[in-house]
Structures are given as C-alpha cells and as structure tokens.
Write a structure and sequence with these properties.
42% of the residues lie in helices and 20% in strands. The protein has 323 residues and is of the alpha/beta class. Helix 5 (173-181) links the parallel strand 6 (166-169) and strand 7 (185-188). 47% of the residues are buried. Keywords: Signal, Transport.
Length: 323
C-alpha cells in the first residue's frame, strides 16, 4: 500500500482511499498536550485503533502527545488550515467560536448531571454547528474530564485563602474574569509551562481535573489540593474540516463511529481512575482540603451574566433553563 499524509498537503483528492486491494493508506495526525502516561493518550490510542479497524486499514491515525504538534491554540489553528488532522482540545475553542466561552465559567453548573445534559444534548450540538461554520473545525465528540480542582502551595479552606493567590489559568477570558471576581490573581499560562512555573514559584497555584493533575505530576511541586469542583470539564476530539472533506463518505462514517467508541471508553476510564488517582496523590504527600464551595460559587456568579451577555447570551439562557 502507498501512504498519503493528508496533513498540510491540500492537493490530495477526496477519494484517496477506496478500500480496494491497491488503495492508498491515508495517515492522519492527532495531537494533544498531555503526556503519554495520561488518560488522554489512552483515549487517543483507542480512537486510532478503532479508526484503523473500521476502515479496514485504509486510514491510520498517528498520535502525538506532549504538545508535539503545539499547544492548544497552535493545534486549533492547525485544524483550521489542515496542518493538523485531529486534536484533543477544549477551552481554547472559545477563541475561535465565542459561544464556547460560556462553558468556561466556573460554577456555571450545579452538578455533573446538568453539565452532561448540556454538552451531550442540543446545546452541545449548537456549539458544534457554530464552530464548524465559523472556524472550519469539526467536533466529533465530547469527552468527560471530571470537575476541576485547585492545587496550591498553601492550604485552601475558604475563599479568603485565595485572595491575591497567583493562580495559573488557561488562556481563556471567562476563567480570568471569574477568578478575579473570587479574589485571586489569575495568570494565563500554557499548560506546558505550568510544572516549571510552580517549581520556580512563578505561580503559586493551578487548577485542573484530577486526571490532569495526576498525569502532569503536579503532586511533585504542590503540597495542597482543595476539592472545589468549580468547573465540570470536557475535551473534544476535534477534526480539521479540510481533512474531513478529503475522505470518502465511508471513511467519514467510520471515523464518527470510532469517535463514539473512544468516547465511551475514555469516559469510563476517567470515572474509574479519578478516585484512585486522588488516593495515590494523597499517598505521595498531598494534603486534601474541602472548603465551603458555596462562597466560591457566589463570588464567581457575580460576573456570569455580564460575561455571557458579551459572548453568547442565548447559550447562557439555555443552560439556565436546564438547571
């Protein structure tokens, strides 16, 4: 079989792999920012395995962890032009379709059930459609990541404890604004710089889901973890629409089916591993606190409507209606 690398080679025709014995094998790239030991890597490898199986080897997906294809924003821009075929990305999508920024507001949802109803229902589909239309990025699936928690170099027992805290946040306006409202000093920073930033005291804290904290070995440079559940988190399997349009309808269908299988696999993995990883981090010396999150939520929600009115008041209202 011959090999066709679709990424960045815009001249490949749509019918590159027909399924016949002498057909070409299409090789696609999938990037993400986490390590090869992370749950994302396992989900990505499952997706790659299913794509190859469901296309009878016509389409192969090569997985690039550790920001090899760039940070979240780099990969999203790569998806737009077809330089990257797939990426596991989330919050940065709000820079390409403003409606996605609504999902980045801490304490937007009261519980995981509300969150799942939003992203796996009509609201998630509406966001998917808007992103495709505006940015030429196609969301194949949403994966659960679990709620975000706060790690720091001092114990967090109340809202007052985060006053002035130099807290790393993703480069997402919604998160910057709400953490300011809660009294912290939010510092936007790419994930690849966080470990060193904590090690060198450039930042004093960061926040992420348990699997991300564990996979990034944050327990090596932070002693305290506060269970804040401030944002129910997702990540997308996003695909370049340029790549999508070069594939046959049969290959497109196979990729959609593979994404569904990988989603079920990843969601179960996250559910099984989160408690286990938290206990392992405690065994490694992390001290876990359980602050009263009601005061955190009240402070965060003071900016929700003001922010939502600027980016997607309709999506915000639909979310309120499912609560």
């Amino acid at each position: 079989m011959g090999l066709i690398m679709l990424s960045g080679c815009g001249g490949q025709s749509k019918g590159g792999a027909s399924g016949s014995a002498d057909s070409k094998t299409v090789v696609l790239k999938l990037g993400h920012i986490q390590s090869e030991n992370d749950l994302w890597q396992q989900g990505a490898l499952k997706f790659a395995e299913e794509v190859e199986k469901k296309t009878n080897g016509q389409v192969k997906v090569q997985v690039y962890p550790n920001s090899t294809l760039g940070g979240d924003r780099d990969m999203a821009e790569g998806l737009q032009v077809g330089a990257v075929d797939f990426a596991l990305i989330a919050g940065v999508l709000g820079n390409f379709e403003p409606s996605f920024q609504i999902l980045e507001l801490p304490y937007l949802f009261d519980n995981e059930e509300q969150f799942r109803k939003a992203i796996y229902g009509p609201i998630g589909q509406e966001l998917t459609d808007r992103l495709l239309k505006r940015a030429n990025i196609r969301v194949l699936a949403y994966w659960d990541r679990g709620p975000r928690q706060l790690t720091s170099n001092k114990p967090i027992n109340s809202l007052n404890d985060i006053k002035g805290l130099k807290l790393r946040v993703p480069e997402i306006p919604a998160m910057v604004e709400t953490w300011k409202a809660m009294g912290a000093n939010p510092t936007p920073m790419a994930w690849g710089e966080v470990y060193t930033g904590l090690q060198q005291n450039v930042i004093e804290a960061q926040e992420n889901p348990i699997p991300f904290i564990y996979g990034g070995r944050i327990y090596e440079v932070q002693k305290y973890l506060a269970i804040t559940n401030h944002k129910y988190e997702y990540v997308t399997i996003a695909m370049s629409n340029k790549t999508w349009e070069k594939l046959t309808p049969e290959q497109q269908k196979a990729i959609q089916e593979a994404a569904k299988v990988a989603t079920d696999y990843e969601n179960q993995l996250v559910k099984e591993q989160t408690d286990k990883q938290l206990k392992e981090m405690e065994a490694k010396g992390m001290k876990v606190t359980h602050p009263n999150i009601e005061e955190f939520a009240r402070a965060a929600r003071t900016v929700h409507k003001q922010f939502a009115d600027k980016v997607a008041p309709d999506i915000y209202q639909k979310i309120l209606e499912i609560k």
